[in-house]
Every structure is written in structure tokens, then in C-alpha cells.
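Entry for the shared binder. Reason: the reviewer on the internal report wants the predicted structure included alongside the sequence.
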Amino acid sequence: MATDVKVPALGESITEGTLAQWLKKPGDAVAADEPIASLETDKVTVDVPSPVAGVLSETVAKEGDTVEVGAVIARIDESGKAAAPAEKAVETTATATPAAAETPAPREEAAAESEPDQITTLSPAVRRAVLEHHVDPTSIKGTGKDGRITKDDVLAAAAAKDSGAPPQPEAKAPAPSPAAPATPARAPATPGDRKEERVKMSRLRQTVAKRLKEAQNTAAMLTTFNDVDMTAVMDARSRYKDLFEKKHGIRLGFMSFFVKAVALAVRDVPSVNASIEGDEIVYRDYLDVSIAVSAPKGLVVPVVRNAQAMSFAEIEKTIAEYGKKAKEGSLTLDEMTGGTFTISNGGVFGSLLSTPILNPPQSGVLGMHRIEERPVAIDGQVVIRPMMYLALSYDHRLVDGREAVTFLVRVKEAIEDPTRLLIDL
């Protein structure tokens, strides 16, 4: 008896997704609720579980196909049994001629045929990297979700191989394989070679591009700048980071200071935390901060909800949890929707200055940048201080220039004198 595997509900207003990767191949045994495929939607990657236990008898869709919610993508044979590699080897030996059994060629061919099967279980990007760098995927320990191999894992293995580092215990000897003709060696590049590679945009990247262009087309975006002296925050962090980590089990970072500073500033300038809906302005007495996080498949913005009521430790723990989920690709739709204001920290990548783009329907986004020692004049003296540029992009239809500048000044005051965060000034 065969049971259809259908695309599950992917969230509100999402009707289709892209089949990113098959986690199982036909003939594999699967348990009930075990993931057999990975789907990429506009915002997140979700696993498709098997509805029953059995054997994956057929895959209807291919990697890269767009599939609608409710569509059949595979079938599970509940009465089937997975084919054991040992049984296959016995059958091959039994049917082979005596002359063939005396030579090692059949075993070599069987080994060569098994390697493409292992490669086809990888994602397209990983598979391409494996073939390009001639790395044995069975010798790589995956760091992705459920131990899956990522492209970074392949590149690291290739770098170790090129540097002459000793191979891992399970690595195969670099002897020529019969499978090599399937991937012909590339000729040495000449100075005049010009190469191109076409890669289909992921659904997430398409959605990001669409939303960013929508923000430019619909909002009257303007950016105002200020700089902030990070001395006080850095001193406080240096003084209390060990006690903070010992008590709360999480490191004290800069982001919690900025989240608290934004929560304080929007009380004085509520329009930055508001939004336009039709011909109405929606003001909020709460702050749900979208924190821009870099993930393997692009930028994602999970939401720290009710940030105005959270402690420094609660903010740091929430951000750390979101960062871990972003790397694993396990963020849910609920965790990435509903933000009222965004903070983006380009400084972690070395950015000195930028003009961040709004995340509709939000009306404000704060851009943080790298901390750089610069000469500044204080009390008539030129001193060296750790300075950071801040950028506030805002919707000028709702936020006036005076309000934008006032908001940035409030953030600057709170960061340069963190005591304000404690006594609510």
C-alpha cells in the first residue's frame, strides 16, 4: 500500500514553495514523521515529514521544482523493505560469471556506482562544490541541521586537502576512481579565461529583492546620521561581562544596549515605531524589534517581542537563540513576522557607514556600524575615542526630520551615558 506525501501548510498567505533538497532517496527506509525533503519558502526552510513508516518508493518532484501546498511530491510504500547493500552485493556475485568473479573489476564498478548515489543526496550547491573540488563527501562531517553537509564544510575540506593536512580517518585514498570520467578534469586556466556561472535565485533571495524594491517604491525614504562615543558602554561591558555571564549564562553584547536605547527613544518619538495602514497611522505602546541576522541563505530578521519590557539578559538570550536557529535554518514564520522597528548591525562585517533600507510596513530602521578610534574634541581637547556612526532611515511620510534627529540624539545620549537606561531618562 502506497501513501502519498503532500506538501504541508507553509504558513499564512504562502501557497507554494521550492523543493530545495531530497533528504531521502527511493529505496530508503523512513520512519513516521521523519523528514524526507526540505522545502524553501519566501521566508524559511521547512522539512517535509513522512506521514507513515515504510520505504520511499517514488519521488514525484525534482529538486528546484516549485510545488504548491497539498501537491503530491513522493509516495511511501508501507509494506516495502529497504534494500540492504549486503543483499545487493550477494546478488551481484551470484549472477556474475566465474571469470568475472575472479577479477576485482565488478567490485570496483559497484563502488563507483555508489558514489554518485551519495552525491545526489546533497543539495545542488553542495553537490556542485563536491564535484568541483573533488572532495569525498563521506569523509566530511556536516555542521548543518541534522548533520547535513554545507557548502562551507566542503570548502573547508578542500582547503585542508590542498594544504596537505592529514585526511580524516574515514577519508579514502586519493587513488583514481572509475567514476572520475563522469567529472572530466578542467584544463589549467589561462590568463585570458573568462568564466560565468548562472545560479537560479533562491525563493528567499527573490522575496528579499521584491520587498526591498517595494520599500523604495512606496515609502519616502530618508536617512539621517549621527555618531556615538562607545567609551561608556565598552567600559561597562568590560567591567561586568564576567559577572553577567556567570549569573545569566550568556555573554553581554552591544546589541542589548542599543535595543534598550531604542525602547527609550521611541517613547519620546513614537512615530518611528508607528506605521501607515491605508489612510491611518497605527501607533504602538510596545516595541517588537526585528534584528537583522546573517544566515547561510541570506539575511533574515527574527523579532524580539516586547523588547521594552525585557532585561539585558533576556534580550541577549533571545538574540543568541535566533542566531543559532538562523544558522540551522530552523526559524519559523511566526518568529520573523510582526516587527515594528529594525536594527541592522553592519559593523560586524566591517561597515563604516551605510544607508539601511526600510522593512515594510515599518517606518524606521537603525543601522549600526563598526567601532573605530577617531580623534574628537571634548572640553576643548582633542582625544582619541572609540566612535561608531549611526544611521536612521525613516519614512518621511510619517516621520519628520526633527523627529528623526531627536530619535537619534536620544539613542546617542543613552549609549554615551548608560545610566539613563536604568533611571529611565
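Summary line for the report: The longest strand covers residues 381-395.
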